[in-house]
């Protein structure tokens, strides 16, 4: 199966094939041999060489959140079109849980990759990080608030003319 996914404004071509108990995943011309066991729907135990990785994948057709060892990855299925799409970078909660730390305040300047908020779910911590350099304009949740998957926890205005992002 061939797929194209976008992550951090970079396009990745992914090809998967299954043979016996192994998956062969090729990402941009590099092939990985992977064993995957589904513990329960959306919860996987992945074996890559001698490394065991626990992963949680949120459901979705065009975009998904993937949780690997405390990090959150938001990927979007790339749709090949001839038109240029306007991509609006909203920050959304990747999981339902409890906000345990808000690391920024309104009007705080942040850099791409800075941790903005930490959510705890199923005894694991998930970091919401800045997808780009900008300024926090609004915070919708405080510590100890419950948050649902897909809601906007805070708003970030993208810095204009940022050479790092171009």
Question: Key terms for this structure?
Answer:
0% helix, 8-stranded antiparallel β-barrel, 166 residues, single chain, mainly beta, OB fold (Dihydrolipoamide Acetyltransferase, E2P), Glycoprotein, Type 4 Pilin
- Described by the principal axes of the CA atoms, the overall outline is globular
- Overall structural class, as computed from helix and strand content, comes to mainly beta
Question: How many domains make up the coordinates?
Answer: 2
SSE order, one letter for each helix or strand: EEEEEEEEEEEEEEE
Main pleated sheet: 8 strands, antiparallel, barrel
Low-confidence stretches: 80-87
Radius of gyration: 17 Å
Largest sheet: spatial strand order: 1-2-3-4-5-6-7-8
Per the CATH scheme, the topology name of the largest domain is Glycoprotein, Type 4 Pilin
Q: Could you give the distance between the termini?
A: 32 Å
Outline the fold blueprint.
Blueprint (H helix, E strand, L loop, with lengths): L1 E6 L2 E10 L2 E6 L2 E11 L2 E6 L2 E7 L5 E6 L2 E7 L19 E6 L6 E2 L4 E7 L2 E6 L4 E6 L6 E2 L6 E5 L8
Antiparallel strand pairs: 1-2, 1-8, 2-3, 3-4, 4-5, 5-6, 6-7, 7-8, 9-11, 9-14, 10-13, 11-12, 13-15
Notes on the structure:
With 166 residues, this protein is an all-beta fold. The protein folds into 2 domains: 76 residues, Glycoprotein, Type 4 Pilin (2-Layer Sandwich); 62 residues, OB fold (Dihydrolipoamide Acetyltransferase, E2P) (Beta Barrel), CATH 2.40.50.100. It contains no helices and 15 strands. β2 and β3 form a beta hairpin. The two termini are 32 Å apart.
